[in-house]
């Protein structure tokens, strides 16, 4: 506006009562890249800034799909960044930090390919009018992914302010990795957990000692490959991977992380050695044989803290998507489920694959994996409650908000 050039931002009439500022956080996930543009309002210097709103947009595929053409990957980031040019008022561009953090997709690429992608993105940031902090483009450590998602959910549900803090644990199921995070209440948990599963984190003038772990290769899409016996096969082209979790007659192709995979159902005339599990017979499909196949991916591979068996958790990303796809929850509202609801739905889908064939051919495998991950992986009880949420107060439940708070704090923009 005309008068903005006449006044410094803080004394500008439009900002006379409050101080508005922005933060731009990119989530470079394994299945897509997303921009979150947050608006904060600082009403007075003594109190914490309030989150006023979020602009969110996403593109597919994720950066890791551009492993061999990093400039194209950076272009997808640039298109999203152009949205921020429109969203943030020009006089605040220079004060608005922009950061990208990549998760499991880039963790699984070679160091060289991942670095090429990151440096192309850095160039896009440096050519923009925004504040580019040091280390603005990086691969995030898995434990931060869990901590920051926990901060987001507990901030949005009001558990990080005031005296009576009843924090909730969080479960995130991505394409390539999965995270579990909670604040232990019992001494036993602290004693029995591997040291690198426990971490101290400071936020909003409090220190939280959290249990968190990120399991690389245990995201929903990586688990599909593991079930098919195709994980970490760089040259999978040509080979056919079969599973009793897929419709019997299916034969198709799938691209993930820049590799092409051929996969199909467990047909009767398939040679025995092509079937992934010794417990599964040729021609067999359905929940029982599928569960056996999936079980070998998770059983004995995850730490099971006793404390979580009876507590309830917030769950999002693919937990949410698959529950919504099968009408276990409302797509917009989310809902509360028990672990056994995923098992019931997995049985229904796997034992009637023809009926669900119009949905994704992986629906049976995905629901069975989620069931096995929750029960045999983390050791949850059948009646453990899961609160499935996509948004709280219209803000995405993503680690990106926690990361933005952390960023603003480290830049001294908030404290
Ligand atoms: N509600 C919501 N879901 C998200 C957001 N970002 C990613 N997801 C979900 O995350 C899942 C994909 O995981 P992704 O981040 O690509 O893989 P990762 O790198 O293994 O974490 C899908 O279920 C997405 O719907 C977000 O900001 N909001
Ligand atoms: Ca993710």
UniProtKB/TrEMBL annotation:
One of its GO terms (cellular component) is endoplasmic reticulum. It is found in: Endoplasmic reticulum; Secreted. Its cofactor is Ca(2+); Mg(2+). Transmembrane segments: none annotated. The active site is at 145 (proton acceptor). The keyword NADP does not apply. Pathway: Protein modification; protein glycosylation. PROSITE patterns: GDA1_CD39_NTPASE (PS01238). It comes from the Eukaryota. Keywords: ATP-binding, Calcium, Disulfide bond, Endoplasmic reticulum, Glycoprotein, Hydrolase, Magnesium, Nucleotide-binding, Secreted, Signal. Its EC number is 3.6.1.6. CDD domains: ASKHA_NBD_NTPDase5 (cd24114). Pfam families: GDA1_CD39. One of its GO terms (molecular function) is ATP binding. Its main location: endoplasmic reticulum. Belongs to the GDA1/CD39 NTPase family. Hydrolyzes nucleoside diphosphates with a preference for GDP, IDP and UDP compared to ADP and CDP. In the lumen of the endoplasmic reticulum, hydrolyzes UDP that acts as an end-product feedback inhibitor of the UDP-Glc:glycoprotein glucosyltransferases. UMP can be transported back by an UDP-sugar antiporter to the cytosol where it is consumed to regenerate UDP-glucose. Therefore, it positively regulates protein reglucosylation by clearing UDP from the ER lumen and by promoting the regeneration of UDP-glucose. PANTHER family: ADENOSINE/GUANOSINE DIPHOSPHATASE (PTHR11782), NUCLEOSIDE DIPHOSPHATE PHOSPHATASE ENTPD5 (PTHR11782:SF35). Monomer; active form. Homodimer; disulfide-linked. Homodimers are enzymatically inactive. This is nucleoside diphosphate phosphatase. It comes from Callipepla squamata (Scaled quail).
